[in-house]
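Weekly structure sync - notes
Attendees: PM, LS, DV (DV joined late)
Agenda: review two folding runs queued last week.

Item 1: First target. Sequence and structure tokens pasted below for the record.
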Amino acid sequence: MHSPLSIYSAALLLTTAPLSLGAQSNAERVLSGRHTPSHDYDLIHQRVEVRNFDWDSTAFDGRVTTTVVSLRPGLDSVILDMGRQLEVRSIVSTNGRRLQYSRPGDSLVVRLAAPVPFRDTVRFTVDYRGRITHGRGLYFFQEEPGRPQQVYSGGGTDGNPRWIPTYGPPHDKATWEVIATVPERFTVVSNGRLVSDRRGAGGVRTTHWRQDRPASTYLLSLVAAPLVKVSDLWREVSVDYYVYPRDSLLARPLFGATPEMMETFSRLTGVRYPWAKYAQTTAAEFIGGMENVSATTLVDWLPDARAYRDRPWYQHTLIPHELAHQWFGNLVTAQNWANYWLNEGFAQFMVGQYWGAKLGRQAEDDFYLDEYRQFVATDARKRMPLATYNSNNVYFKGALVLEMLKKQLGPERFWGAVNRYLTRHRYANATTDDLRQAVLQATGENLEWFWSQWIYRAGYPEFAVTAAYDSAAAEVTLTVRQTQPDTATADSAGFRFATPLVFRSPIAIRVGTPAGDVVARVVIDRREQTVRIGGVRAAPTMVVFDDSNAVLKTLAFEQPTAWIATQLARHHDLWNRSWAIGQLARRPGDVLAAAALGRAARGADYYLTRAEAAGALGGFPRERALPALQAAMGDTSAQVREAAVTALGAVGGGRAAELARRAWTTDPSYEVRAAALTALARVQPERSRKAVLAALSTPSYRDAIQNAAIAAVVQRPDSGLVAALERVAGQQPLPAIALGVLAARGDRYARAALERRMRDQRPWVRRWAREASERDGSGS
């Protein structure tokens, strides 16, 4: 979803009293509810009618009938969020009386005919014309190769008020119906149950959907396009996949696991899927997915059969994430955007839970290890807490914090708390503290310390550890320091996000010995402390800090290579293995490190460990790395082969080039072939020219192979390669971007090619060329 920057931010500021922000902690700001704007009515129901879509002017006609209940005596006006690109034609009450209105900014103020008593109901209808600019709210697409004409909504957190007058913030839930009149070749998908679908005069059809259980209005949706429906069933609930006709055979392989996911999520949470149906609809140039209630919209990147070798993100992450939102975000919705992590963090967390339930613990760890890497990278760019307005890390950190909470409580108690949270707040809203209360009530545990450091404050512990063994005392002594700084600066209002100098961290430390392992459970709760582990009656063979990866962290822990190699070979946890690989990769001159990585690349029991080990060998001398990399090129996992061929490109040499060329020619995986081409172009740039030319016209999922070829052209262009680049400039935007980059460097052939494409008969090619020229400054 888009970041939660809303067109009703101004209204929010007007409805919250000024506070001395510098004197407040982030927890106090979030708990105060200052991010939930006041309003004096309860939105009950909206009837949305849209028609006369005009793709040339990106315009349409709309009529929205709104029902509200007064929350104060004498209510004389109703303020709705309504983008300024929507032009009101008239507003009438239920008895046909025209109502006065005003349009301050992105709002609509409707003056009621008479003051409305407390708890009375009022209804009025707004007729308007919408002209969408810059693709906000509604997105119009003309037909292009591989993409039919279509229109769809993008609710996000603030998109829907840009095409319908409504109440935008999430804390007031309502029911609604959507009635759309479109060209008769179109199919209309919206929320809830289908009421009617009728063809009319003039080559149009009118489709009526009704969402009869309350939800936040940012979850209202519309998709209209030439689509076919592929149907499934979960228990008695319809599960439908709407795709372009050309993609009909690709739908079930991609979406067919959805009923199984619904069953898994219902079983884990103890709350059955809560809506009338579940539809997944594909749309052009969509930003990932949007969890519209009962009717998710997804980007139209359907993998073909070969793409599944590469574990496409679409199936692995996007589908289960958006489905999980139907519980987390739709059934129970964050009260305001400062609590947005409850929606996105839970949805991302549930992806790992699905794969763990389906494929086992390592598949679960695999998912969270990727989340960890993305979290650390995001945190390095800007450090923010989970619960705060417009937090930048609600997905990755949210998932990881919930995984930590599950480890802290244990699975049975954790899911008991989740069930309490969902059932107590179903079809309503919740805050971060509501989740804490659910944990307290379900388990008896007051985890205020956990909430304080992981949710309301920023950062994570950065551990620096040293270890020493005393054979006489049969004791290992660890010195543990937390080195994370608290250096965040205050913003213009004097507010700053604090990072705790000390994180309370319950962990286990495993000491491996020839006589068996010794495991000590300790709580790290000081800036610096000493941990003594007794009963170690033989010299350690490994020392694993945070044995079950219970705490989100970074770890600096210098150890002998032999210890780290043993950890890589013996340990079950993927984070601890990955950490060991990273430590060994820093020792390219160490024969023991190379041998340990080679063994892991050949024979580790999980593909990710083999892939990471193979990738690390790319930094080692050729003679030490090549045997293991050659073996890894025969791995059954495409991810391992991709890592291995990438490493071959780094180590170089004739044998590496031979292996890369073989992979380019014969490997069934798109991603491996793309990586092989990149490696070949790196090792033998002149001799790879024929392969690059072939790759420019080789189709693959998400253009992986063509993109690798384009990158190779940009690295070593010549007039022949530039001409080949121009020949594929109508297939996707990247060739034009590459031409723009080369033109900006002074390549006259590229400049001429880009100028020719700006005169191309195909409008999308002209657009791509113009945008590339503007982006890289090569335009006149």
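Item 2: Second target, run right after the first with the same settings.
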Amino acid sequence: MQRSRPPKNFLGGEVLGLADAAALEHPAEHLTTGVLPQPPSRHDVNLSLRAAWRVLVSRRGLVLSIVAGALAACLVYCALAPAQYESRARLALRTTPATTLRMDAGEGSFSGSLASGQTQLETLASVFRSDQLAWRVILEERLYRQPSFSGDFARRFPGFHAERPTPEAEAYLIRRFEDRLRVSTIPRTLLLEVGFRCGDGAIAAKTVQALIRAYGVQEEEARVQATAQAADWLREQLRALKTKSVQDDERLTSFQREHGLVIAPEVLSNGSTSDVQHVSAYTALDELARELAAARAERILREAEYRAAWQGDPELVLAADPRAGQDSGDALIAVFRQIRERRSHLQEEFSQLNPERGPNYPRVVEIREELAELEKQLQTEDGRLRERYRRAWELSAQREQMLQQDLEKRTAEGLQANAAALQFEAMRREADASRELYLKAQGKAEEAGLAAGVPNPEFRVVDEPRIAAKPIAPNLLLYSAITLFVAAWVAMGMAFAVESRWPRARSPLVLLLAVVLAPATMRGQAPTPSTSGLPTGVARIPQSSDTRPMPDPRDAPPEVAPGRLTTAGAPVASLTGAVPAPIGPGDLLDVSEFHTPEFHSTVRVTAGGMIRLPLAGDVAVQGMDESQAAQAIAAALTEKGMLRHPQVHVLVIASMGQDVSVLGEVMRAGVYPYGVHHQLLDLIAAAGGTTPVAGTLAYIFHRDDPIAHAVALDRSGKDVEGASNPELRPGDTVQMSRSGLVYVVGDVMRPGGFVLDPGHPMTVLQAVSLAWGPSQNAALKKTLLIREQAGGSRTVMTLDLKRMLRGQDPDVPIGERDILFVPNSAVKNLWNRTMESVVQSTAGVSIYAGLVYSQRF
């Protein structure tokens, strides 16, 4: 029969009747009637919109008074605050010259790099903010006489003179100018925005224009002064360089006339002339000497190659010849190289096969025949190579003799002009250096004079400053909207706080409490449960949901009973295992040899106990183990002359009828080879260990015995050779049992089911600690313990979890399949959400108002 829903209070909570309250206090007395109290649903603990509206209507006086007071304060401020006008101008940094007529192109003042542009833009902004530029604008525009800018300056400094200002007056004017000046860069552009704010829009526009104009005049004065200093120094250096250049020219002319030298410029390979001059006879002699040296070296090399090839092995001469790579097109050398490389490859292969393969190995016989054929070809090619070296030697000797005769004839002519040419060249270089230095200095002096008068602005004006039509402050609409939003949230929070704590308070008392409690409620920190009297390690109660993230249930370690087998804690298998079964018909073997990869084979033993392998043929392995089978195959390879020292390895991959199975609560159930896993713990470890809900009993079923044999696993993990780890038989099946569970649901950090070990009883606090403790909104005094009885009926017990955590009530044992339900508190949920919303909204509005104020002022 469905129960009717009881009425709710103003917070949406359910009001229990007398019968329900009695049932919760004495659950055992109501078991016979069959009517049990139902746990509160999720819908009953949430605040409805209708209930919230009723709270706001009942406290409308408080809400309206807070909102009206805040708006009145905002209106008073906007009415009394003086109006402020701002004029702005935008400047663009030049990345290219303003005109092609530039006299300082070599200075590189313009750069196309974005990083260098941003650096120049920041530097330009800092110059606009400088005190020197600000003071210059103040004096030019006489801002100290403008009441909209100076304020009470006349009262502070009555005897001020602009020609002789005091340090205090100058610092006061500069500080007021910098407070009203705004110089900022526009992100991701090379634009600079200059703005000035004061009580008169016309004065603000004129101040921005004067600031830009003053910067240009200041930069021009600095350029003219630096250019004048450099020009004076260059004029002094020009006089000395001109005198020295004239003297060097006169010395060169007199020396050339005295010695009768005819000197011409050197002609390059492309037909042009260079700055280097030379004597024709001396140049020809030098070229002949170089050609003779090269011809003599060529003759010596060719003679050495011929003698080495005739007396020894031409193959060694060819290997030592550095020019062999350049003559690869010659058919004779190409053929000889191919033969030699082929012989080297065959010898290398023969040296690798000979130590291990026998003389009758097919590849060994084939290599010996190919080597004999290549040896005959090498003898024929050696003769042709020796003849080639002889002809090259004779040609190089004839060329050397011709060059020697020509050199002796021209040596006499070149010696006469050698001494005079060397002295003339030294004098000419000195004169050229003096003349070049003079011309460079003269060009720099002329260029500096022209560059000083050419304007070179670093920026251009994009937007001229204009007179502002409307004031930027105070902004009545913006300030009213911000005040209304903040005041509405604060008023609603105060209304809910007063309704929850003082539901019968009247309007005057409510206003007084609102003023007193306002600073405390701005913290927005929900009350946290106390853990006084709680034993260490029993439960973990979070202090605030804002200070740490919610835990992930998948990261929690499973609760496993002590001594139970798991993947990480499985006992180590026994080291004294049973002897593997001998090889029999039907077994699958993996056979490999260390020196011969192509010998690797996977074969199955025939009914006669034989296996067929390449190079070895048929080998009998029935009744042997892996080591004996490897020795039998190695003996067959040695006997047939295929390998000298074979190293054979045999591995049994699969055996017929030698498997065991594992089922139930293991990580990887399946069939496993018996030869490797012959004990119970070995088989469980191979299956990945037991699951978190596995029991401590394992049932073994033999192939010829239908009765299950129960084995109790050792919880300590020490009895690996006793009754808890018996030997298995081929064909056995192992079934792992399952443990019981207890369920923790409701308002806890990690609800779910947890393993309950029958040998280690669990209590309510232990179950809550496995669920990572209750949340901050949990109703600890209304915890329910639901227990299933025999016959399908259930009993419900109400527990005071808060008193248990403090150690005031005894801890209640919990059994298998019990359900522990921790409900949610509507009052805590409402209070925490209200304070959180108020704090977040207030912080957001404050940040937004600060950003707006910083951008405008």
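Discussion on item 2: Residues 1-46, 105-112, 518-578 have pLDDT under 50 and may be disordered.
Action: LS to circulate a short write-up before next sync.
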